[in-house]
Amino acid sequence: MTKTIFLLTISFLLSVVASAQNIIEWSADYKLTKDDFQAEAPNSGQMQTASGSYYVEYEMGGLNLVMTRNLNENVSCYFQKDASYLDEGTEEGTARLLKYQNLVFNLYEIQARNIRKKFFEERKTLLTKGPSKLHQQAYAEHAKLLSQVENETFNGTLDSEIDKWMDWSLEELERLGDFCKTCKPKKNKNK
Question: Which of 64, 108, 138, 183 has its CA 20 to 30 A from that of 172?
Fold first, then answer.
């Protein structure tokens, strides 16, 4: 019995480690590379494409929600390698697609920072109605932004528009600097 529990524990720990290696958490210092796209690409031969799997999640509740003022560390932005693909193609096309996918990753981090900001500024709503209402608001705003970026960059095919949006995303990340995962937001002195 002890041997079975030990083997199950080891198996569980190995699966957690393997899963963690499949996930990249957003970082200003990290740029996605071709090697990060590990899913098989459904290349039809017509056009080089890429698809990244990004998500924002939050973990909170109980005493953590009530006792902790800074909930930034409870909201995370991730990229999942085995659910993302990048077709083989030209070096120029690959570079453009990677630049676009890094832009999209930034947009998801902006969503995460907007959620952190809502959790911080709308504490009463957070405590009375829970985090899902604020998360849904940030998600709706993010969907509109992502749609606008996709339209203006023609789904990541216009270099000049990708560059314009990348500059905007970096400015927006700076503007929301108090709401990075490891940052401590400044108290609002007007209250």
Answer: 64
| Structural domain total, the chain | 1
Q: Over the stretch 7-38, which tens digit does the pLDDT of each residue have?
A: 344 444 344 344 458 999 999 999 999 999 99
Three-class SS state of 73? helix
Quote the CA–CA distance of 78 and 176 in Å, as a whole number.
Answer: 18
pTM for the whole structure: 0.85
Residue 12 lies in a domain: no
> What pLDDT digit, counting tens, does each position of 101-150 carry?
999 999 999 999 999 999 989 888 887 888 888 889 999 999 999 999 99
Q: Which domain holds residue 147?
A: 22-179
Q: What distance in Å separates the CA atoms of residue 145 and residue 9, rounded to the nearest whole number?
A: 43
Cα gap 93→87, rounded to integer Å = 10
Q: What is the 3-state secondary structure (H, E, C) of 158-178?
A: CHHHHHHHHHHHHHHHHHCHH
**54 occurs within a structural domain:** yes
The answer to whether position 185 is within a domain reads no
Contact criterion met (CB below 8 Å) for 45 and 95: no
Residue 7 lies in a domain: no
